[in-house]
């Protein structure tokens, strides 16, 4: 999560360092997310066939190499290659962590474990705001990102020596014949749960991820007129203040599966209405306090996305083949992140600088559209969804 969102607070500095405009700047997180999305299905197959711990090692090594290259890249082409490496590593991390959860914990605890996974991941997102901003200011670009690479290598060693695919003494059972890639995908798409998980992830996870990945910090500075320090602190506080939401939601839907439907519909409705108000506010963005409330709802929805979306994804899918279903859920959410991030960058590029609040209202029209359409589709999907897990 640190590597996925770290470019947001460094966006303005990256624009100056690599001498690019908003459209090319958005290509840095977008290429990372495109690689992430494209590799979701292969990552799910690796999770099911190679095993989580080995796949995690591959991902962490690629990510460490990418962030080191990003630290020393003298120009835009190498920086782009570095973000591709980071995206390659990122593609396998979360899927394999929740794949471990499916192997280590009973079905009723899966949502709660996924929630705590999201919480710890959010700590990386928090570290990618104020702490990274301070490191960039105090040590400079190269040292700050080389330090991030060193931490990633330490995490790689921890996975190598600590993480195991199953609890000690667990019965593996008779190996089942692997099904084809096409059969795995068809199985996941035909099941109702993964389809709902895909829509839910796209609606409640994507909007704030787009802000955290790139455009939240520039908007607060350029569009809302906040000082850079205030903007980074605001995003950090939002990240920390919403962490409690995921375990609470995970515990609720683990104990009461019927709660998933009203929670999902209510959250999607609030997120979509918030974006419609934001882009439709006359004369510029809403007052800063309302913007912060809107961002807080989005941040809370994002940390709720994992326990709900991946719990839906397991409905009707054997535990040993959850990787493909989870990869499709992840793919849907981040495909929307890519579309809305690119859309915002393209709109800002077409508008004259300096960019003000109205410019960002126009730039955020794509995310307002995807949120609204997704909320309607999710409500239709959940209208007659079973109260208990299928």
TrEMBL record:
Xref: SUPFAM superfamilies: MFS general substrate transporter (SSF103473)
Species name: Halostreptopolyspora alba
Stored PROSITE patterns: MFS
CDD domains cross-referenced by the UniProt entry: MFS
Protein name, UniProt field: MFS transporter
Membrane topology recorded in Swiss-Prot or TrEMBL: Multi-pass membrane protein
Protein's cellular compartments: Cell membrane
Pfam families cross-referenced by the UniProt entry: MFS_1 (PF07690)
Keywords: Cell membrane, Membrane, Transmembrane, Transmembrane helix, Transport
Main location: membrane
A molecular function GO annotation: transmembrane transporter activity
Residue span, Major facilitator superfamily (MFS) profile domain: 1-386
Annotated signal peptide: none
Cellular-component GO terms for this entry: plasma membrane
Transmembrane segments: 20-43, 55-73, 79-98, 110-132, 138-163, 202-221, 233-256, 263-281, 287-307, 328-348, 360-383
